[in-house]
Amino acid sequence: MVGNAPPVSVVIADDEPVVREGLRLILETQDDLAVLGGADDGEQAVRLCAELRPQVLLLDVRMPGRDGLWTLRELARRELLGAGGTRVLMLTTFDLDAYLDEALAAGASGFLLKSSSYEELLAGVRATARGDGSLSPSLLRRVIDGYLAHHDRPSPDPADVERLDRLTARERDVLDLIGEGYNNQEIAQRLVVSGHTVKSHVSRLLAKTGCRDRGQAAALARRARERRR
């Protein structure tokens, strides 16, 4: 925990009790993270988020009954999702990569493989709480490759083209790097600019494209990338 800042509050939603308990035990080893509760389906996850207002929801993509995608949409409908509310880090297995675009478009801040390491889990939760999202380059590239191997190249969406045309060349560079999973610090290093400059670019590109957050921006970047391949 930094200074007197309160710990990041987390709710875990997964239908497997062993997974929920394992995640809780890992997170509670950290002074800057606090698990407020657990849910075994989407409806319970939404109720807990409405009641407890956690900063981060660790949400399994596939659950019986109301799944992770339904949960995202319901949180958005109730205006509980995103900055000032709850940010969502999706839990998935590699064979569910087709859910990525839909989940990001619905408001997910990032994805975490269930096979991720202890360190990746903690880093993902912290990044999500900060608003950086958690789309690591290694995960995102694997998912993109797997997705493209099973899908035809999509036709350009006129709405996407119009949104992208509003961006400057540098804002497009930043958007592409967001789509590859880099955080602001990593983008600054790659573009050899300051973190403040990157933050300004991100704010402007979100406003110009109408994306609610980095997750939706990443989905837009992914669609553009798929059309270029």
From TrEMBL:
<dbReference type="InterPro" id="IPR058245">
    <property type="entry name" value="NreC/VraR/RcsB-like_REC"/>
</dbReference>
<feature type="domain" description="HTH luxR-type">
    <location>
        <begin position="160"/>
        <end position="225"/>
    </location>
</feature>
<dbReference type="Pfam" id="PF00196">
    <property type="entry name" value="GerE"/>
</dbReference>
<dbReference type="Pfam" id="PF00072">
    <property type="entry name" value="Response_reg"/>
</dbReference>
<keyword id="KW-0804">Transcription</keyword>
<protein>
    <submittedName>
        <fullName>Response regulator transcription factor</fullName>
    </submittedName>
</protein>
<dbReference type="InterPro" id="IPR011006">
    <property type="entry name" value="CheY-like_superfamily"/>
</dbReference>
<dbReference type="InterPro" id="IPR016032">
    <property type="entry name" value="Sig_transdc_resp-reg_C-effctor"/>
</dbReference>
<keyword id="KW-0805">Transcription regulation</keyword>
<dbReference type="InterPro" id="IPR000792">
    <property type="entry name" value="Tscrpt_reg_LuxR_C"/>
</dbReference>
<dbReference type="InterPro" id="IPR001789">
    <property type="entry name" value="Sig_transdc_resp-reg_receiver"/>
</dbReference>
<keyword id="KW-0238">DNA-binding</keyword>
<feature type="modified residue" description="4-aspartylphosphate">
    <location>
        <position position="60"/>
    </location>
</feature>
<dbReference type="InterPro" id="IPR039420">
    <property type="entry name" value="WalR-like"/>
</dbReference>
<keyword id="KW-0597">Phosphoprotein</keyword>
<feature type="domain" description="Response regulatory">
    <location>
        <begin position="9"/>
        <end position="129"/>
    </location>
</feature>
